[in-house]
Amino acid sequence: MNGLIFLIPVALGMGGLGLSAFFWAMRSGQFDDMDGAAQRILIEEDDEGVS
Fold first, then answer.
1. How far is CA 8 from CA 12, 18, 32, 38, in A?
2. How far lies 7's CA from each of 16, 19, 21, in Å?
3. Domains: count for the chain
4. Which structural domain range is residue 16 located in?
5. DSSP letters spanning 1-51
6. How far, in Å, CA of 26 to CA of 48, rounded?
7. What is the distance between the alpha carbons of residues 49 and 51, in angstroms, rounded to a whole number?
8. Do 37 and 43 touch, CB atoms closer than 8 A?
9. Is the separation of the CB atoms in 31 and 25 below 8 Å?
10. Which residues contact 5 (CB under 8 A, 6 or more apart)?
11. 25 CB-near residues (< 8 Å, 6+ apart)
């Protein structure tokens, strides 16, 4: 039982830290162009200068 007194606040703090990191990423535009990144994989680029 004594371990729970320590572990529950640590788990809540880590959850809050993860949630705040997620909201920071949303505000800074990390998730704006998900389709563009997926389409960029499929586009072939001609490498000029490569022998």
1. 6, 15, 34, 39
2. 14, 18, 21
3. 1
4. 3-48
5. -HHHHHHHHHHHHHHHHHHHHHHHHHHTTTTS-HHHHHHHHH-----TT--
6. 37
7. 6
8. no
9. yes
10. none
11. 31
Structure-token pair, residue 5: 């007194």
Dihedral of alpha carbons 33, 36, 40, 41, sign: positive
**How many whole angstroms separate alpha carbon 31 and alpha carbon 25?**
7
Q: Could you tell me the two tokens for 38?
A: 């997926």
Tokens for 51?
A: 């022998």
- Amino acid 49: pLDDT: 55
Structure confidence at residue 18 (pLDDT): 98
| Stated pTM of the model | 0.59
